[in-house]
Amino acid sequence: MASDLDSFVESMQQRCNELAEEKFGPVAGERWRNPRHAEPLQGPPDAVGTSRGGCGDTISICLALDGDGRIAQAAFDTNGCGSSAVCGDAACELAVGKTPAEAAKVSGADILELLGGLPGDKEHCAMLAANALHETLKTIGG
Question: What pLDDT digit, counting tens, does each position of 49-66 carry?
Fold first, then answer.
């Protein structure tokens, strides 16, 4: 019985992965399956910020700076859809290694470019993630 259930769950997960890639493309589909910045930071954050979109999704981003003031670590959390998750993850990736001033230039368009685009009805998630990053950057040193 357990092997039947395991097989069913495995086939359902595979189908979900296929549908995600069909709808969102290979880059966003891969990031949905394997987010790079969904784990908590390895230490206390230097900055935390949140943005809530008109859709009701919320993205929070935490940043840790290195000794030179560059973003060494970034992590996100969302209560939103898969598109919000992949956009939050992409925003974090685009921020790491940059100074806060450089990261403040990250836009929703940059996030969409990194992801290879999203369906039109999900593009607002990239703007939400960029806004979350900008809100986080406002808390540095304050």
Answer: 999 999 999 999 999 999
